[in-house]
Amino acid sequence: MTITRIVIHCSDTPNGRPNTAEDIHRWHKERKWDGIGYHHVITVDGDVQNGRPHYWQGAHADPFNKDSLGICLIGRDQFSDAQWRSLEGLVIGLKEQYQGAEVLGHCDLNDHKTCPNFDVKAWWAEVQARGID
To answer: Which residues, in sequence order, are CB contacts of 130 under 8 Å at separation 6+?
Structure first.
């Protein structure tokens, strides 16, 4: 599978609620899906949890699932400093592994979505401007 996009999402759960990848897996199974649709979940305390393995097509940004990885931040629109640090580190690592992959938000792929409720492209440009990438 060729990864061309790294798509950032939010769980759209109350800010600060300590949900996990296991919770999302259960919610998605309850919807009769194959399980968690994201490849990574970042909890409120900054823990990076695995969802689907990278070789398994995600279910997070139809019709772009075939060539993308999904990262979900727990919360709606207020993320902890630990989450921001973990997101930065995770995306930097994924960009090393999948060079050329575009970093964007779910809302950049679907005009009907606001997820993840921040400008991912601007955030990523700021990270790159600091010279970390």
So the answer is: none
Per-residue CA distances from 33 to 28, 80, 92, 119 (Å)? 5, 29, 29, 28
* Confidence category of residue 1, pLDDT binned at 50, 70, 90: confident
Cα separation, 14 vs 23, in Å, equals: 14
Question: Looking at the domain covering 5-129, what would its CATH class be?
Answer: alpha beta
C-alpha to C-alpha distances, 101 to 51, 65, 92, 96, 115, nearest whole angstrom: 19, 13, 11, 9, 19
Q: How far is CA 80 from CA 43, 52, 97, 105, 114, in A?
A: 9, 24, 26, 18, 19
* Residue 120: strand, helix, or coil: helix
Long-range CB contact pairs, 123-131, < 8 A, 24+: 124/91, 127/88, 127/91, 127/92
Q: Is the pLDDT of residue 91 over 50?
A: yes
At residue 132, the pLDDT reads: 53
The pLDDT confidence band at residue 133, using thresholds 50, 70 and 90, is very low
